Amino acid sequence: MVGRLGFASVLLLCRFAVDPADAPAFLARGTRALELLTAAEGALDGRLGRAVDDPGRWVLAVRFASVDAYRRALSPFPVREHVVPLLSEALADEPATYETLVDAAAGTATEFPSLLA
Fold it and tell me: Domain ABM: where (predicted)?
């Protein structure tokens, strides 16, 4: 099935535990990471957020058009210099990269075949 985007996307989702005193520095680093990652060809969009009920928990989410776009986005030197160290600080108790199986907008959901198949 083909959705709004016409393809299944890849989601990078990293959670972080950040001391509230370090929040301003983390916000700056996360913003720079988003700028670098979303500048890559095949990057669709990205977000950096903080948990409403726990100001020490943050999440970085970036969508890519494909697995290849995600991998290419991590290749440039500025990304390896600024983004990769940040991503290495993410909580490691779960995977960080997911394939999109269902996309929904305006009350309509679209399913995608697995990229793993």
Answer: 12-73
- Mean pLDDT, residues 20-25 taken together: 96
Where exactly are the structural domains of the chain? Answer: 13-97
Mean predicted confidence (pLDDT) in 69-77: 95
In the predicted structure, residue 7 carries a pLDDT above the cut 80? no
**E strand spans, 1-117:** 10-17, 43-50, 57-64, 97-99, 102-105, 108-111
Third-level CATH fold of 13-97: Alpha-Beta Plaits (3.30.70)
Note the helical H segments in 1-117.
Answer: 23-38, 67-73, 77-87
Please enumerate in sequence order all residues whose Cβ is within 8 A of that of 4, keeping only pairs 6 or more positions apart, or say none.
103, 105, 110
- Closest by CA to 67, choosing from 30, 102, 116, 104, is 116
All residues at 6 or more sequence positions from 53 whose CB lies less than 8 Å from its CB, including other chains: none
Instruction: Write down the pLDDT at residue 3.
Output: 41
Residue 37, phi then psi, degrees to nearest 5: -70, -40
How far apart, in whole angstroms, are the C-alpha atoms of residue 43 and residue 64? 4
